[in-house]
Amino acid sequence: MGLFNLLFGQKGFTHGIHPPYHKDTADKPIRRLPFPPQLVLPLDQHIGKPAIPLVVKGQEVVRGEPIAKADGNFSVPLHAPATGRVAGIELMPTPKGPKTSAILIDVYEGSTQEVLWEQPRDMSELSPQEIIQAIQDSGMVGLGGAAFPSHMKLAIPDDKQVDTLIVNGCECEPYLTCDHRIMLEHPKALLRGIRYAMRATGTEKAIIGIEDNKMDAVELLKGHLSKGSPVEVKAVETKYPQGSEKMLIKSALDREVPTGGLPADVGVVVNNVGTLAGLGDLLPKGRGLIERVITVAGPGIAKPGNYLVPLGTPIRHILDHVGYEGARTEFILGGPMMGPAVSALDTPITKGTSGLLVLNEPSIEEESHKIWPCIRCARCVSACPMHLNPSMLGQLAAKRKYEEMAEDYHLTDCFECGCCSYVCPSNIPLVQYFRIAKAINREQAA
Amino acid sequence: MSEETSIFGPYTHAKSSISRTMGLVMLSLLPATLFGLYQFGWPAIFLFLTTIVACVLAEAFSLRVAGKPIKPFVMDGSAILTGWLLAMTLPPWAPWWIGLIGALLAIIVAKQVFGGLGQNLFNPAMVARVALLISFPLEMTLFNQPVPMFSAQAPGFLESLAITFGSSDAIDAVSSATTLGHLKTELGRGVALPEAATTTVSIWQQLWGQTSGSLGETSALLLLLGGLFLIYKKVINWHIPVSMLGTLALLAGLFHLIDPNSYVGPMTHLLSGAAILCAFFIATDLVTSPVSIRGQILFGAGCGLLIYAIRTWAGYPEGVAFAVMLMNACTPLIDHYLKPRIYGRDRKGQPLVYSNEGTDRK
């Protein structure tokens, strides 16, 4: 425990960083964008097996209708975000990198934003099992960025017992404010979603963890809770990566997930506020996930804000509507710390995309392009939230000693938050080294 | 190497760079350095400049031989800083070739032979200082009283040139033992400490730096100021300075209590010699100190212990350079054994074990 925590008695994870937060869009209400002429819907917007198409080229679909079904349990279905005609199933670019199969929908001009396909249900009559099934049918995944199927996360294995649902409202990535807006604008849907998740998991307590730079959301949610409510709102320190599952569990409950284990091993299940607000909205209506809120921001954007966009909207369409300076070339999906940069403007917004950032080229270039030798300054060591030794890992990576990295320095515990690269005065791309090392180790193990 | 570029995430970066780090260290050294140069006059300025220029030239030469880009590496400021630190530990009126040889030893032998920036095992300035002390014991132990610039005794510009670059006996007129040197000699002759200490300078003079000693080591107060600035700027952690000075003071206090006649008290130990300079600027050298907090505490304590032992029982009145080098040699070992506990693992690196209830901590 660090000196700060010792002195001020604050619980929380140690290390981490304080990047400039740039939460300038926090006061921008969620706005809808018009439909693009064509939607690109990759079949693998989630972790797990890709969905199986239910439609064929030329088929007409209505907004909300299922267009692909889950392939087994570790998969989720896909729904049509707009009324139109299926233009084909083709390989398209995605934020993940390689092109993958995607359903293309030519949106009808004048297509309504009313959802035309739904199966309302009475939630109070569902058993936990049925709630889990309903969640899978909605196609919901972790909207914080991981895109892990929500029904998998909320289905607690028989040999585990969870006592607490942690609701992740930290949003620790710079620029992003979509979760903040959801908490402010849809508190009731969020609290409904929390109740469903508690019933599905059998937990009797829920903690909404929110970074203390969003006290308006903390106060608002507290106001919606009655005395004796099993839901508690907890302000946690504003510090990256507070929104990482493991860090938030440490901050909220002072429990540590064992290496190689799951949150359920310490009696916890964690869900993002966007995900739960989504479930609170979709489940009673029996609808599927067809749109999501993203933060569009960065110095290159003319009209930054929070936008509700249909899944599959190409980022070019969004940029045309918000206006951006064409000279900027760095487009990042998600936050600047962990989000990938994309070059193809045909790349669509998918379920796991929480933001679209257009960063000033100089703000990337300045010093951060030149790589210097490691001077062992140990800033990375005091930044790593997992308490690894990135300095040593980086030097081993340069020598291609990938096995030693994993065995002696626990490379696999790294979750690639980017704190080490952020603080490195030598601008060593440590995270990139670690990704390569992990990939090579995986290849050799296979 | 520095020509490589990175275009990977994260797409935001802290305002930190090597040259910024080096610049901050130099900035924090500035008050004590200016004071030292003022105290010891033109010869000190000549020696200071000679050492730094020689370091930069040696760095450029080595980079050329190694086939590395010269300009970016020279511009990073690390060679200037090495020269600066080395000059601060030299007797202020030492001849120019002491600075030159020291610079060559520091840059070529202690730094570039190991692979350049970040690769050296030992602190380059301390390697040079130790090698000089052993090779040229006379020049390296000839200290002079402070003769502030513009004062009556201060040597003029031309006379100073002769002191640094030519042969001059001027130093004999003002030569004076350092506090630690004087006490060591007197104790060696069997004089009791309170008696020997009557001729040394007061604590206040030591604090300010109005005493004979190495070029930049005399003003404990200004060095302390610079050190605190570095901690404030998060260039260094507080752990090494505190554990080093704490250990030194504790040992000195303990032995002084037991036998005040033979053991020097803690204030003299802390304020004289290179203790403060070492605690904040040399032992904390990023490259050659451990990376973990527990490692840094152990490292600092080790330095303090060795400094005390060398000063008290060994042949030299001052042991900072030896102590730091010995602890530098231990750094890889300390880093290997004192790894921080990783999240989700116990100290041995095994995954944490929880009971079936899930909530009970191990």
Helix content of chain B: 55-70%
User: Helix coverage percent of residues of chain A?
Assistant: 25-40%
Order of the strands making up the biggest sheet of chain A: 1-14-13-17-15-16
Structural class category of chain B: mainly alpha
Mean pLDDT of chain A: 91
Highest-level CATH class of chain B: Mainly Alpha
Round the mean pLDDT of chain B to the nearest integer and report it.
Answer: 87
Which topology of chain B does CATH recognise?
Ammonium transporter fold
Number of continuous helical runs of chain A: 15
Summed up, the domain count of chain B is 1
How many angstroms separate the termini of chain B? 47 Å
Query: What is the 3D shape of chain A?
Result: globular
Could you spell the SSE succession of chain B in H and E letters? HHHHHHHHHHHHHHHHH
In terms of quaternary structure, the protein is heterodimer
Radius of gyration of chain B: 22 Å
* Uncertain residue segments of chain A: none
Q: What is the radius of gyration of chain A computed over CA atoms, rounded to a whole number of angstroms? A: 22 Å
Task: Please give a structural write-up.
The complex is a heterodimer of chains A (446) and B (362). With 446 residues, chain A is an alpha/beta fold. Chain A has 15 helices and 17 strands. The two termini of chain A are 38 Å apart. Chain B has a single domain (18-337), classed as Ammonium transporter fold (Orthogonal Bundle). Chain B contains 17 helices and no strands. At the A-B interface, helix 11 and helix 14 of A face helix 1 of B.
